[in-house]
Amino acid sequence: MIRSVNVVGAVIENHNGQFLCALRSSKMSMPNLWEFPGGKIKEGEKPETALVREIVEELGCTVKVGELVASVEHQYPEIKVNLKTFKAIIENGQPKALEHSELRWVPKGELEKLNWAPADIPTVNKLKGS
Ligand SMILES: Nc1nc2c([nH]c(=O)n2[C@H]2C[C@H](O)[C@@H](COP(=O)(O)OP(=O)(O)OP(=O)(O)O)O2)c(=O)[nH]1
């Protein structure tokens, strides 16, 4: 059976034009790859609601979700990921790496130097060209 998951990721930009990048920990699936923080959408949940929930769980802060950046279907060897990334701004709190091994603010010109989860590349390319 083809396994597929619907996933949301947050593109969070700060006032210096840097983007919040998160390194998946060695305990997560796809370990040691950079991603946009977020996670799986639950059955019946709106993508925007899922993103707010996941950011509280992973970063301990609340965000306001904005426009869609990219919608990507990526087939990994064992799973198909449907990833939607959204712009988001922090409303309350400071992001903390509650589940990731590292958080890093990266200017857009340096985003492509990170070792990204492959499904994230179209989002990185859109930001680079924006
Ligand atoms: N969160 C997130 N996941 C991504 C991105 N790119 C990408 O390929 N993925 C993949 C990794 C995982 O296979 C899946 C998301 O799973 P996850 O482990 O982050 O989600 P979750 O927190 O809801 O998971 P769980 O621990 O509840 O099972 O999507 C991304 O930018 N953000």
UniProtKB/TrEMBL annotation:
Keywords: DNA damage, DNA repair, DNA replication, Hydrolase, Magnesium, Metal-binding, Mutator protein
EC number(s) reported in the record: 3.6.1.55
Keyword Transmembrane helix: no
Pfam families membership: NUDIX_4
GO terms of molecular function: 8-oxo-7,8-dihydrodeoxyguanosine triphosphate pyrophosphatase activity; 8-oxo-7,8-dihydroguanosine triphosphate pyrophosphatase activity; 8-oxo-dGDP phosphatase activity; 8-oxo-GDP phosphatase activity; metal ion binding
Requisite cofactors: Mg(2+)
Protein name: 8-oxo-dGTP diphosphatase
Organism of this sequence: Anaerobacillus alkalilacustris
